[in-house]
UniProtKB/TrEMBL annotation:
The keyword Cell membrane does not apply. This is Helix-turn-helix transcriptional regulator. It holds the Pfam family HxlR. Keywords: DNA-binding, Transcription, Transcription regulation.
Length: 106
């Protein structure tokens, strides 16, 4: 079990998933392995630097696994870890909640 920095596990989760990009990256990685360029194509408004920072944050949190292959040109692939895969149904549930809410339906 992870040691909590704060007393609230939701606060811990929000530190990992807060912001514009982390949940979208988990969403795009749910379909399987992606290269950096694939993630840039899926998210055309994210900068190279921001994508790098967000992937590192998710990797540090144990949500994403980065695999670097030897050789030239450099090839790096990203996958959800088992912990990351467990987030997918939770995010799907949030999406369903939004679609059923008064805010989404006007």
């Amino acid at each position: 079990m992870k040691e909590l920095v704060s007393r609230c596990p939701i606060e811990e989760v929000m530190q990992v998933l807060s912001g514009r990009w982390p949940t979208l990256l988990v969403y795009y990685l749910q379909d399987g392995t992606k290269r950096f360029s694939d993630l840039r194509r899926d998210n055309p408004t994210i900068s190279h630097k921001m994508l790098t920072l967000e992937l590192r944050k998710l990797e540090d949190a144990g949500v994403v696994q980065r695999t670097q292959f030897p050789g030239y040109p450099l090839r790096v692939e990203y996958d959800l870890t088992e912990a990351g895969q467990k987030l997918v149904p939770l995010l799907d549930g949030l999406g369903e909640w939004w679609l059923k809410s008064d805010e989404a339906t006007g």
